[in-house]
Amino acid sequence: MPPTSPDESPMDSWRNERRDQAVAAFDARIPALYADEINLHADIDNWATRAPGAPTSLFVWGPLGVGKTHAAWRAARRWVGAQFASDYRGTPVVQTWRSTALFDALRPDSEGGTPKKLMRELQTASLLYIDDLAAARVSPSGWTQERLYEIFDERYVNRLPVLVTSDVKPNQISHIVGERVTSRAAEIFRGGVVHLAGSDRRQGGAA
Ligand SMILES: Nc1ncnc2c1ncn2[C@@H]1O[C@H](COP(=O)(O)OP(=O)(O)O)[C@@H](O)[C@H]1O
Ligand SMILES: [Mg+2]
What we know:
globular, 5-stranded parallel β-sheet, 8 helices, binds adenosine-5'-diphosphate
């Protein structure tokens, strides 16, 4: 964290204190594998730091093992910190889901779940991060795809950010999420699609 500067106003230091708390709380949620800082792709960093002209939502795609999930966690952490600028409006709520777990949770027969409450949380969270959107090769049911549409549509009309990682482009997710979400995704991620290229970092590694 940057040191407190002597000319910081009481308002600034109050906000910075809250920022540091929120980032620390988010750190506790980041899986150990993704704890280290990495150099972020410039477009991802611009999104995370809310650089002028940066898109609201971000879709990071590329082959297995290039570092999409790692980049997304680090970007989400940076995004949390960036919410404490002068237009600060309260501590952001971040929902983070692997797509497979999300599809399960949205099923009508979801175990111990309260899909309606969850739906509201997914629709209204300050940031919704869905990891590995195309990893679930099994398409969810039409019912689940409808719930996904409710989430994407509500977030779209309220201009609430969505962060997605995927191994395919946004226009290639329809077999998973359905036509309606694919169409919404095209609008949501316009100007916010980042392709991570490279080789599988897991190959030949200790893991
Ligand atoms: N920029 C990076 N520098 C070093 N290691 C990285 C970097 N990006 C990812 N990794 C590591 O590479 C492995 C694969 O990254 P991951 O984000 O899980 O890939 P993907 O989600 O694209 O399949 C992980 O062990 C991760 O910690
Ligand atoms: Mg991944």
